[in-house]
């Protein structure tokens, strides 16, 4: 799954600039009644899909579950990009719904869904041997405002998700910094995950506002592995008490400018601990500040093969406890006073993706590897005053189409280091001198993604974790997993 500095929408489509001036007032014509009828049919279809998924398990949105593949085209031996013309989306396992999906797409409405599960069992390490499954589903509705209302350059999305199932990290006493099941987080419950509108403002500028995940646009990464160290945006796992990724999406606004191969973005996201409540709500009271991320990216073509390179930073305005000092600058573990309350939390990151061998094609979201090796790298640093896990560095390799006759399979190998802040470690050892100071946790994963049929992928994996929790005196952990992804 390729990354680009421009984050595609949940169906993998790029949000293209409109070459003509925007029409601000909707067109009203004889097709309005037909569109209203299609919207009604879409609502009934959504209800039917939701009813059918009610007994399924766990969730992420479709952009993180499985890419909706475009029809394959013949590829030349050279890495020159191909540009297939696709008139309609490649729908998932449930097909065209007797032509209803085609009619809806023509009218400006796309309905999609995804179901997935992650099974994990520890064969070494932890306090007990166990096997758990987390699973879920998502339902997404995309709208094209030009087709629906005559408003050019507009696009909106609504997503509902459900997650359920216990975490092997907790059940087996693994005490890892990050879970071997990336889908266990933010409450095993129903959520209104996304409700946003995006509008093209000119040839290179667009704005997006509503409820949306920070990692959808900023620090965006693919999610092909099962361990959370290598799945999607990593700032959330690092500082998850104020950086919220899908399905926990805060109120926000994001502005993006794309001059040529460069992309510049800035956003403002509400910081509200009450968004973590397990409910379906449009708004919660209790905001304590905002998080402001910025990012600059470059889409490259190195040696005739695509890549992207991005740098970003963020600042959160809320107050948080200092990890070591009290208000007098002394360790609160010794003084017995409350931790000092610091204003402002911040950090920075670097992301890189580069295909190094093989071939690719130009798809709607950007370059897509059809065969060969792609290298990924990320590094991030959070402030050391308030972040217990203050840095992470990770790299992984993905080889697409490793065998003849298996064009959509892939093999992935990943390694990471997540650091425990030395100030937090000192505070903990001052409070308990007999304890071991935590340092860093090292995680790795090897997986094979096997496409059983289009839109149905099984990915067995093995994970190996050294110094779980960052403690060098703990036994290494081996986890066997199976990730299943279906696009409906």
UniProtKB/TrEMBL annotation:
<dbReference type="InterPro" id="IPR007049">
    <property type="entry name" value="Carb-sel_porin_OprB"/>
</dbReference>
<dbReference type="Pfam" id="PF04966">
    <property type="entry name" value="OprB"/>
</dbReference>
<comment type="similarity">
    <text>Belongs to the OprB family.</text>
</comment>
<feature type="region of interest" description="Disordered">
    <location>
        <begin position="71"/>
        <end position="90"/>
    </location>
</feature>
<protein>
    <submittedName>
        <fullName>Carbohydrate porin</fullName>
    </submittedName>
</protein>
<dbReference type="InterPro" id="IPR038673">
    <property type="entry name" value="OprB_sf"/>
</dbReference>
<dbReference type="InterPro" id="IPR052932">
    <property type="entry name" value="OprB_Porin"/>
</dbReference>
């Amino acid at each position: 799954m390729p990354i680009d500095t421009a984050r595609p929408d949940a169906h993998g489509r790029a949000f293209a600039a409109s070459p003509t001036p925007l029409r601000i007032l909707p067109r009203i014509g004889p097709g309005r009644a037909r569109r209203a009828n299609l919207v009604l049919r879409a609502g009934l279809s959504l209800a039917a899909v939701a009813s059918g998924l009610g007994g399924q398990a766990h969730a992420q949105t479709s952009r993180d579950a499985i890419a909706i593949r475009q029809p394959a085209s013949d590829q030349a031996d050279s890495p020159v990009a191909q540009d297939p013309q696709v008139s309609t989306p490649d729908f998932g396992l449930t097909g065209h719904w007797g032509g209803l999906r085609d009619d809806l797409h023509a009218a400006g409405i796309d309905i999609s869904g995804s179901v997935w599960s992650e099974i994990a069992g520890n064969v070494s390490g932890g306090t007990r041997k166990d096997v758990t499954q987390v699973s879920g589903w998502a339902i997404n509705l995309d709208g094209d405002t030009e087709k629906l209302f005559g408003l050019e350059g507009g696009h909106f999305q609504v997503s509902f998700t459900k997650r359920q199932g216990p975490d092997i990290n907790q059940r087996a006493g693994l005490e890892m910094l990050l879970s071997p099941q990336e889908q266990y987080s933010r409450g095993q419950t129903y959520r209104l995950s996304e409700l946003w509108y995006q509008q093209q403002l000119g040839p290179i500028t667009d704005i997006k506002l509503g409820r949306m995940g920070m990692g959808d646009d900023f620090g965006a990464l693919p999610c092909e592995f099962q361990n959370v160290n290598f799945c999607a945006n990593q700032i959330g796992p690092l500082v998850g008490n104020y950086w919220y990724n899908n399905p926990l999406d805060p109120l926000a606004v994001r502005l993006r400018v794309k001059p040529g191969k460069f992309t510049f973005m800035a956003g403002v996201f509400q910081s509200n601990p009450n968004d973590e409540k397990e409910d379906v709500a449009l708004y919660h009271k209790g905001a304590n500040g905002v998080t402001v991320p910025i990012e600059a990216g470059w889409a490259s073509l190195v040696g005739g093969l695509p890549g992207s390179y991005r740098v970003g930073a963020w600042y959160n305005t809320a107050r948080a406890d200092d990890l070591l000092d009290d208000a007098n600058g002394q360790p609160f573990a010794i003084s017995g006073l409350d931790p000092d309350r610091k204003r402002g939390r911040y950090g920075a990151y670097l992301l890189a993706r580069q295909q190094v061998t093989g071939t690719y094609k130009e798809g709607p979201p950007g370059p897509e590897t059809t065969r060969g090796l792609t290298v990924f790298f990320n590094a991030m640093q959070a402030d050391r005053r308030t972040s217990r896990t203050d840095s992470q560095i990770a790299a992984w390799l993905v080889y697409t189409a490793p065998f003849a006759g298996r064009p959509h399979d892939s093999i992935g190998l990943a390694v990471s280091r997540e650091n425990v802040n030395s100030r937090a470690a000192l505070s903990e050892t001052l409070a308990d001198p007999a304890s071991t100071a935590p340092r860093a946790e090292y995680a790795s994963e090897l997986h094979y993604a096997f496409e059983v049929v289009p839109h149905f992928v099984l990915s067995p994996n093995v994970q190996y974790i050294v110094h779980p929790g960052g403690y060098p005196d703990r036994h290494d952990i081996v986890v066997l997993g199976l990730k299943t992804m279906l696009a409906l």
